[in-house]
Amino acid sequence: MRAGKLRAEVGIAPRVVGVAQVREREIELAGTRSPAIESGPAAAEAAVFVHGNPGSSADWRDLAGRVGEFSRALALDMPGFGGCRAPRDFDFRPEGFSEFLGDALDLLGVERAHIVVHDLGGPFSWPLITARPELVSSVAMINTGMLSGRRWHTMARLWRTPLVGEAVQLATPRRLFMRGLQAGDGRPLPDEFVGRMGRDYDRHTRRAVLAIYRAADVPYPAASRWRATLSSLDLPSLIVWGEKDPFVPPRAIEHLRSAFPSAEVVRLSGSGHFPFADDPEGTAAAVVPFLQAQLERAAV
C-alpha cells in the first residue's frame, strides 16, 4: 500500500440527495489529492462507485445518496479526472488505475467492497478484483466493457494516433465536446451534467485521455486473463445497459457475461451512454435493490 492520508471534509456543507447526506472530503495518495464523496455510516463494507471517461466522483452523487440510506457509499476522482491531477509518473494502464483504487480503499478503511462501474471504470477495476478477490464481493456494471473488442470507437482511434490526437484535442472546443456527449438518439442529458463535464474536461484531463488510450490496446493483453479469473469467481453481478449508447456497442454485454456468468442484465431502452444521468430513476431501480440484496446477504 502506498502512503496516503485523509483530509478533513473540505468545509462544504453536506447536501441532501435522495435520502442520505452526501459528504465531500479529500484524500492524499500517490503524490496527488483526490476529491471524494461519501454517504451513509462509517463501515468497513461499502458500495464503491468508479467513474469512467469523462467523469468524476460527482457522477455518482445521486446514487451515493440513495445507497447511503442503508450502507456506506463512496466515490473518488481518479487520476487525471475531475479535481485529481495525475502524478507525473502515473501508470495510465488499467493496472495503474486499479492500484490507485485499491490503495484508496485501504486508506479509507474499506475491507469489503461492492463495486459499481461505468465506462472505463470497468477496466480500471478488473485488475483489482482479479488481484484481490477477497476485497470485492459484487459488481454492478453500467455501459462498460472488458477491453476485449476488435477495435476502438472512432474518437478513440484518433486519440491513439500521435500528433493527430493532440490536434483533435486542441481543435475540440468545450462547446463541441459538450455537444458530443449528446450523440446518439437517447434521452437528452441534463444541462447541469453536461455543463459540469465541459468544465472538467480541461487540459489536464485531455492529456490524461490521450495517455489512457495510448497505454491500452484492444484486445488488451491482460483481458483474457481477467475474463478467466472473473469467470471462475462468478461474483454476484448486474449489468445495466443504456441501449442507445453511441460509444460502446451492445456486443460488449456478451463480453461482460463471459466474465460474469451469473450477471442479471437490465436494459434501459431510452438511455444512452450515461444512464445514471439521463434516467436516474431507472438506473436506481436496478442498482439500489441489487446492492441492498448483496449487503443483506453479507450480513447473514
Question: What does this 3D model show about the protein?
Answer:
- With 300 residues, this protein is of the alpha/beta class.
- Helices cover 40% and strands 21% of the residues.
- The chain has helices spanning 61-67, 94-107, 121-131, 154-160, 164-170, 174-181, 191-200, 203-215, 223-233, 252-259, 275-278, 280-299; strands spanning 4-7, 15-16, 21-29, 32-39, 45-50, 72-76, 112-119, 136-144, 237-242, 264-268.
- Strands 1, 2, 3, 4, 5, 6, 7, 8, 9 and 10 form a 10-stranded mixed sheet that branches.
- The model is unreliable at 8-18 (pLDDT under 50).
Which CATH architecture? 3-Layer(aba) Sandwich
Q: Report the CATH topology name.
A: Rossmann fold
| Beta-strand percent range | 15-25%
Biggest sheet descriptor: 10 strands, mixed
The structural domain count equals: 1
* Beta strands, count: 10
Instruction: Kindly report the average pLDDT value.
Output: 91
Structural class: alpha/beta
- The CATH superfamily bears the name Alpha/Beta hydrolase fold, catalytic domain
Q: Looking at the structure, what is the overall shape?
A: globular
Order of helices and strands: EEEEEHEHEHEHHHHHHEHEHH
Q: Give start-end ranges of low-pLDDT stretches.
A: 8-18
First-to-last CA distance: 30 Å
In helices, the fraction of residues equals 40-55%
Radius of gyration (Å): 18 Å
What is the helix tally?
12
Instruction: Report the top-level CATH class.
Output: Alpha Beta
